[in-house]
Amino acid sequence: MMKSFPELRCAVFLIILPIVTGCAVGPDFKRPDAPKATGYAPAAASVPVLAGESQRFNPKADVPFDWWKLFGSPEINSLIERAFKANPDIASAQAALRQAQQNAVAQQGFFYPTVGVSYSPSRNKLAGNMGGNSPGIQGNGTVIQTGSNPAGPVYNSPAYYNFHVAQLTVGYVPDVFGLNRRMVESAQTQVDAQKMQLEATYITLASNVVAAAIQEASLRAQIAAMKKVVGFNRQMLELLQAQYRLGDVSGVDVAAQESLLASVEQTLAPLQAQLEQTRDLIRALAGNSPDEEVEEKFELASLHLPVELPLSLPSRIVEQRPDVRAAEEQLHFASAQAGVAIANRLPQFALTAAIGGMADNPSWMFRSGGGFFNLAASVSQTIFDGGTLHARSRAAEQALIGAGAQYRSTVIAALQNVADTLYTIQSDASQLKAAASGALAARTSVELVRKQYQLGAVNYQAQLAAEQNDQLAAINLTQAQASRLGVTVALYQALGGGWWNRPVTPADKRQQ
């Protein structure tokens, strides 16, 4: 006998009560503690606090999002802006983020009932022998008999009828032990991880663009200096050949100079190839194919070394580095999945309800006698599954342990990256200082030799040798300047790239 409506309300209340008072089983995620380190070197070692005369560290300075503008190159600024719009890696990361967001929305939908409607009309025909020897029924309900002998066998005529069923169904799975809450938590961690991946893509792209621009500028300067060196060696060879014809030098001297000229020309060719490869890289970073040129070209003189450099403490690095934040979200994901594994081993509840009508004519489906409804609740518990759920729970526990270890490894690698970059800045500062001193000495030497040549104190060969040494010293200085610029880019990247200071655009609001 069907329960009365008060009894139904009571049954529903008893089922909903554990939903309201239930909790999510499994571990509640707690963010790992920040590193206790206060610097990037042992206490007994010197911590770099000054990066030479042209740069200084400021621990209180923040990393701007558009840190590349500190290099003072409008060409770099325009190229990065275009790369952010056209590079396919950005589009891929954005799509991955939107995918994760939609997966999270889809999982949240399980908090709500599922509602559906259905309508099933049918035209039916019963077999003629349905009901044994009972009289046949015409389509209008008239009973007929067949045969001339009323007392003889009676056969049924086919019966035709229509049937219509329409109903509204509602299904709901109460989240008694927090299974869906943990699933939503898991999905949200993937959203947050993809956000960090997108930020890392922006940072990496900007860093690669600036590094490529510095490389191009350095190669252009080196090629220009090396061409001058090649010219000096050709002039030297011409002089030696003239002196050889006059008998002033031997053929050994001419051959030695020919070998030196060939060696210098051989050095020039790889530099030119590297320049073309760097241009290919710049075109690719901008989202262009190799035959689509970019108008920006870079010269070393147009790049400025940032004077003040930020220096974040280790406790801030874990907040700023996208890779560390992504590793934290993977740890959070493993924690939520451990809760999912536990909840899967507990009883599962379900509620279903349906209301509708049925009749042989649509107009009678919801009239007296045509309506129907049902309300059902169920609970299920796995008794034996060969240890599957238990094993999955143990596997989730190990995954949580592994994610914790991976997070600590990522933090250590991030701090090591910063420390290595700081030491490289310090080393490059010393190298740049030495290269600048060498270039200054070579410049002074060539000026003195020129005066001596004008006075007749030295021959032209001595001046050519001094000019060549001056250009070689200029190449060393160029390489040291480019290295100093490049390691500065690496520092901004190692500190997190300033993504937290990125202005919110309308596109960002649409993705939220």
Could you walk me through the main structural features you see in this protein, from its secondary elements to its overall organization?
- The protein is built from ten helices and eight strands.
- Helix 4 runs antiparallel to helix 7 (322-343).
- The longest helix is centred in the middle third of the chain and has 68 residues, at 179-246.
- The model is unreliable at 1-8, 17-21 and 132-149 (pLDDT under 50).
- A hairpin with a 5-residue loop joins strand 3 (136-137) and strand 4 (143-144).
- It has a single domain, classed as Outer membrane efflux proteins (OEP) (Up-down Bundle).
- It starts with a helix and ends with a helix.
- With 512 residues, the chain is an alpha+beta fold.
- It has helices at residues 5-21, 74-86, 88-108, 179-246, 251-285, 314-320, 322-343, 388-455, 460-494, 506-511, and strands at residues 56-58, 114-126, 136-137, 143-144, 159-172, 308-310, 348-359, 371-380.
- Strands 2-5-7-8 form a four-stranded antiparallel sheet, with no helix packed on it. It has a two-stranded parallel ribbon with strand order 1-6. It has a two-stranded antiparallel sheet with strand order 3-4.
